[in-house]
Amino acid sequence: MKVSLNWLKEYVDIDLEPTILGEKIARTSVEMDAVYQPVGDMHDVVVARVLSVEPHPDSDHMVITQVDAGEDEPIQIVTGAPNVAEGQLVILAKHGSKIGGGQKIKKGKLRGVPSNGMLAALQELGFDDKVAPKDFEDGIWAFDEKDGVKPGDDVFEALGYNDWILETGVTPNRADMLSMNGTAWDVAAMLGKTPKMPEVNLIENGERRTDELISASAPEELAAKYKLRVISDVKIGDSPLWLQRRLWNAGMRPINNVVDITNYVLLTFGQPLHAFDYDKLPEKHINVRLANVDEQLVTLDGEKRDLRPGQDIVIADGDKGLMLGGVMGGQDTEIDNDTTTVILEGAIFNAHNIRATARRHDLHSEASQRFERGVNWDATQDALDYAAQLISELAGGRVEQGVVEATNVEKAPVVVDITLNRVNKVLGLELSVADVVAIFDQLHFETSVTGETMSVTIPARRWDISIPADLIEEVARMYGYDNLPSTLPVNSATTGKLTYKQQVIRSSRHFLEGLGLNQAISYGLTTDDKARMFTLDNAAEITKLDYPMTQDRTATRMSLVGGLLDDIAYNTARKQLNVGLYEQGRVFYRHGEEVRPVEVEHIAGAVTGAIDATTWDAKGKLVDFFTIKGMVEAYLAEFDFVAPITYVATSDHVEMHPGRTADVMVGDQLVGFVGQVHPAIAKNFKIKDTYVFELDLQKLLDLPKHDRAYDLISKFPAVTRDIAILVDENVAHADILATIAGKGGKHLKHVQLFDVYQGENVPAGKKSLAYTLTYQDTAKTLVEEEVNTAFEKVVKALVDELHAEIR
């Protein structure tokens, strides 16, 4: 919040330098984002009266003016401002002055006519376009005769631009400081003073009763308080300069006197108000309800909003929706120049609904910001009356008799008990009861003492305090955080150690990087369509976000492969064609009526292009199924599972190539898949042939494994036997290996496929495979008879079980 120091001084007698005060607030209350003067280094800009306006002889849009700047002689200014007129009090940047952006103004000639300065718009003094009044957004600023300025006056003083602004970063728990009243109470407490609060002296000078003009109804669960006042005979116009100064120094744009007063009261009390044009209400019955199905509303910013039924709070007149309650008013009932009767609304809305509506419509207004965080429960009536009082004074209105009150839920005062021992133990101090009570008195908290127990009655303006810990924090910050004793924590040292899961994750990353893959970190959120792709759990449902940040991040991922393919596509589009990536992370599965998904650790990889660099004598080898399968085999071998690892051809994964994909099994447990991405999917991602794998790392962690032990390296020679067989072409290499291993005996150490042949001299539908079998014993040299016996069993098993023909 931007706090005007001049305004704050009307509450509290402050004699500190602005920067020192800002530092004190930062050390005691809330973060201080900035302390500055809007004027900056601008200078020599004054008020001037336009004496005459004449056309420029060589321009169809510029004019020659003579202005009185409080000097002996008039000053000639050439300007292109479309709204300059004789008699106006305007802003003059004189020769030698400096304005916004460090721009220096010098006298010169514009199309041959001398000009000794410039008539300036507010934007040229550094005003933001969102703050400068709309009436002057296309031209220069002109003061009103009632503003009390005269030629020669310093413009920055007249505009409040030499004021100091304390820009506070208000945390959600200190929403009381989103108002001048709340800020004044806190600053006064830290300075040991009592603030002077604004007086509400409303005179109901109307002749009619409010409840005869308007009625209202509201459910307490939507609006715990809902009140209306009516002000008649209002004259809409510009606000006085003092009020406009306070608004634009707070970052708000002046609109007209009625709207400006509601914003001014919001800044004063932290209580949002809204003003309706009474004559634009057809039924004159205001009701608070939730949005209906297919209901739409045009808000003050001109946007048509599709409301969410049963969630958005709507303020309606009969059946007609008027505004988004607590967020933004509606265009149909806005205050305009023809308004004569105003309905003033003061309410406290349900914070949950306001927060959801503001996020859903991306409409974070000054009102919603305060309703979300909470407002002073006891200030609604005072704020309503103060606004009516100001409208009566500044817009000539008559305040009708009484208030229409739809709801007015009362809250009992919050009383918190705390002991001196607890305060001293937490803060490490040795305060007395009198010391603590003095701090509570400084905060203007009513306190009663029984022994060492203090019962503190919390004022409604500090709704952030409800438990003893909150009071201890108040004592600490008023005592001074810098004054608390510094001590080192006392605890026994513990030896750091990674869990088994952490060890596996870390070693997995090292291992895959050793295979040449680079780590990728993808978003955990993706689109609804991509979330379903490549999942290992087809029974799971996707988890959608209620309030996604973008259309590309609407659901939680159910696979890591989709994110890796996005990364492959990103690199491919930038001519990086040989890419190998892996990712370790979590996927999210939700079943049935579960609200929160289950998070499961997965690991995945994706490879495309060539795995070897092309050299002068050899072309780089392209990745194929066996490349990615070899990576998976090498990785799974590190676990040393009790159950065997097998690869089963499958076409169940619709996003994978049906002829180049296999399920990865450990025993009878499915732990993942490996293979080529389906060409249609690869085309959608705009990538070339890509091979991927994904493994359920949590299952790999849970499966039983052999105990690791030292394996003696044999010092005795190995014996090899080669065998070539002819089998049906649909017999899998894995089945042959399983048969050889099953009959090979305890001395069979390794089986290597060294030749595959189909073609001339091999019957159609057959294939020839040649293997080398290696036998070795760790205790002795194997003799010929032992090896031959074991080898004959392998040969017999191949013939009997696989109908192989020995070549």
TrEMBL record:
Q: Where is the TRNA-binding domain?
A: 39-156
Q: Does the keyword NADP apply?
A: no
Kindly list the biological process annotations in GO that this record carries: phenylalanyl-tRNA aminoacylation
Record key words, sorted: Aminoacyl-tRNA synthetase, ATP-binding, Cytoplasm, Ligase, Magnesium, Metal-binding, Nucleotide-binding, Protein biosynthesis, RNA-binding, tRNA-binding
Q: Offer a single GO CC term for the protein.
A: phenylalanine-tRNA ligase complex
The residues that hold Mg(2+) are: D464, D470, E473, E474
Enzyme Commission identifier(s)? 6.1.1.20
GO MF terms held by the record: ATP binding; catalytic activity, acting on a protein; magnesium ion binding; phenylalanine-tRNA ligase activity; transferase activity; tRNA binding
For this protein, what reaction is catalysed? tRNA(Phe) + L-phenylalanine + ATP = L-phenylalanyl-tRNA(Phe) + AMP + diphosphate + H(+)
Where in the cell? Answer: Cytoplasm
- Name the domain of life: Bacteria
Q: What does the note under cofactor report?
A: Binds 2 magnesium ions per tetramer.
Q: Where is the B5 domain?
A: 411-486
Q: Which part of the chain is the FDX-ACB domain?
A: 714-807
InterPro entries in the cross-refs: aa-tRNA-synth_II/BPL/LPL (IPR045864), B3/B4_tRNA-bd (IPR005146), DNA-bd_dom_put_sf (IPR009061), Fdx_antiC-bd (IPR005121), Fdx_antiC-bd_sf (IPR036690), NA-bd_OB-fold (IPR012340), Phe-tRNA-ligase_IIc_bsu (IPR045060), Phe-tRNA-ligase_IIc_bsu_bact (IPR004532)
The record's listing under Gene3D superfamilies reads: 3.30.56.10, Bira Bifunctional Protein, Domain 2, Ferrodoxin-fold anticodon-binding domain, Nucleic acid-binding proteins, Phenylalanyl-trna Synthetase, Chain B, domain 3
Top EC class, one word: ligase
Question: Which cofactors are named for this entry?
Answer: Mg(2+)
Q: Return the Pfam families for the record.
A: B3_4 (PF03483), B5 (PF03484), FDX-ACB (PF03147), tRNA_bind (PF01588), tRNA_synthFbeta (PF17759)
How it assembles, according to the record, is: Tetramer of two alpha and two beta subunits.
- Family per record: Belongs to the phenylalanyl-tRNA synthetase beta subunit family. Type 1 subfamily.
Fetch the HAMAP family from UniProt.
Answer: Phe_tRNA_synth_beta1
Q: What is this protein called?
A: Phenylalanine--tRNA ligase beta subunit
